[in-house]
């Protein structure tokens, strides 16, 4: 295990000076940074003032997709009194992309309290997106009396168990994992034996040269145990993925960008579209973080992922809602 | 007069303790107090003071609240002595313990 594997890389508080300089520039531009992956080694490219990537090589992709997360429709507290508006801004940003994404992933917490009206409002907004949206539930989508019944009725058709599934697009194998059911006292989130058995079976037909994208709500790796930011049996899923040449694990839940690389596996959590949360351990508890209203959109955002066929680099581009 | 006062005191002392009520605050992703000792018959009421929903779930599923939004509360009357562990089913790192004695 190298240093990067031990310590999550924060794209807003990087470890090496070159990247720090780079990110300072991109932060100044208010845009973000693109991560191009080659053989599991991430390479960062700065975005220019207009939010474009300065090195066109990073964008020489045959297809791309977008990740949206943590919409929390129904939340109405000080940290963001109007998450409908900020989700709309995120959707407008996707619509405005120069090239239509092949697909869109929503990594959970569509709603705040799983109320039917919240699901309805979210669906009304999200149907404006220009591509098919693939969902996984967040724990906030399982708060109805049926414990996730409303989510599964709406988004669970054709899925297994509590909503897990896989599909292929442009030669990439996408795996949707669910880790927001059956929480046990004092433990992190779990995938459970049934889902792990399904995953092992699903991967049987996937060749090791196929790029894999895993998406799930709570980080699959233990990002910060005291706040429950991790999946207890996630390492069993990760072990099954190690033999693959290019694996990208996308999560939500923590409402901020944190990334780490372990061998050929890149772990990346996205910003949400509703409200920011504190960096791990920087506050007594992980609740909504109130920032000045005119700063809020700097903390919210979407992730654009680009892939080049034939080779396997996936580039992750995080952009804020500014 | 003294006898009457004594009678009242006796009635008060002999009253079952089910009348007792205790409040547990849910704040900053913690149950406060986390550990509680109460007599049999106590009604415990949890109130969520966080901006994030929480639940109250007994480890062995004896009782389980729905999602408590900000300001929502949930109550359970402890009629049997014993030790009860509970947690938030959304944030399972949030733990609480109640010892109920005769």
Automatic annotation (TrEMBL), chain A:
<dbReference type="InterPro" id="IPR051918">
    <property type="entry name" value="STPP_CPPED1"/>
</dbReference>
<dbReference type="InterPro" id="IPR006311">
    <property type="entry name" value="TAT_signal"/>
</dbReference>
<dbReference type="InterPro" id="IPR004843">
    <property type="entry name" value="Calcineurin-like_PHP"/>
</dbReference>
<protein>
    <submittedName>
        <fullName>3',5'-cyclic AMP phosphodiesterase CpdA</fullName>
    </submittedName>
</protein>
<dbReference type="Pfam" id="PF00149">
    <property type="entry name" value="Metallophos"/>
</dbReference>
<dbReference type="InterPro" id="IPR029052">
    <property type="entry name" value="Metallo-depent_PP-like"/>
</dbReference>
<feature type="domain" description="Calcineurin-like phosphoesterase">
    <location>
        <begin position="64"/>
        <end position="256"/>
    </location>
</feature>
């Amino acid at each position: 295990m190298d240093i990067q594997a031990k310590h999550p890389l924060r794209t807003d508080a990087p470890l090496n000076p070159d990247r720090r300089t780079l990110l300072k520039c991109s932060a100044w531009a208010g845009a973000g940074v693109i991560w191009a992956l080659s053989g599991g080694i991430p390479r960062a490219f700065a975005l220019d003032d207009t939010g474009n990537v300065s090195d066109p090589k990073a964008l020489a992709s045959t297809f791309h997709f977008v990740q949206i997360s943590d919409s929390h429709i129904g939340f109405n507290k000080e940290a963001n009194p109007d998450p409908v508006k900020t989700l709309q801004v995120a959707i407008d940003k996707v619509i405005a992309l120069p090239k239509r994404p092949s697909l869109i992933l929503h990594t959970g917490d569509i709603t705040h309290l799983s109320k039917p009206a919240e699901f309805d409002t979210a669906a009304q907004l999200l149907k404006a997106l220009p591509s098919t949206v693939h969902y996984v539930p967040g724990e906030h989508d399982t708060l109805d009396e049926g414990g996730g019944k409303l989510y599964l009725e709406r988004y669970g058709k054709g899925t297994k168990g509590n909503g897990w599934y896989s599909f292929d697009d442009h030669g990439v194998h996408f795996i949707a994992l669910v880790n927001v059911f059956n929480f046990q006292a004092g433990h992190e989130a779990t995938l459970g034996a049934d889902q792990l058995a399904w995953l092992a079976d699903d991967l049987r037909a996937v060749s090791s040269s196929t790029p894999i994208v895993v998406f799930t709500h709570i980080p699959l790796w233990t990002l910060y145990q005291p706040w429950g930011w991790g999946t207890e049996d996630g390492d069993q899923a990760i072990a099954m993925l190690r033999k693959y040449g290019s694996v990208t694990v996308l999560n939500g839940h923590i409402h901020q960008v944190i990334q780490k690389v372990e061998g050929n596996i890149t772990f990346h959590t996205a910003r949400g579209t509703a409200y920011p949360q504190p960096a791990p351990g920087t506050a007594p508890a992980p609740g909504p973080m109130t920032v000045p209203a005119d700063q809020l959109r700097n903390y919210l955002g979407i992730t654009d992922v680009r892939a080049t066929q034939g080779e396997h680099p996936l580039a992750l581009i995080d952009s804020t809602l500014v | 007069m003294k006898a009457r006062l004594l009678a009242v005191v006796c009635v008060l002392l002999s009253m079952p303790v089910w009348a007792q009520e205790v409040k547990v605050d849910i704040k900053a992703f913690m149950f406060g107090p986390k550990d509680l000792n109460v007599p049999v018959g106590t009604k415990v009421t949890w109130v969520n003071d966080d901006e994030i929903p929480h639940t109250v779930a007994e480890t062995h599923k004896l009782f389980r609240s729905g999602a408590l939004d900000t300001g929502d509360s949930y109550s359970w009357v402890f009629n049997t002595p014993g030790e009860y562990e509970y947690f938030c089913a959304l944030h399972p790192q949030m733990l609480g313990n109640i010892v109920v004695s005769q």
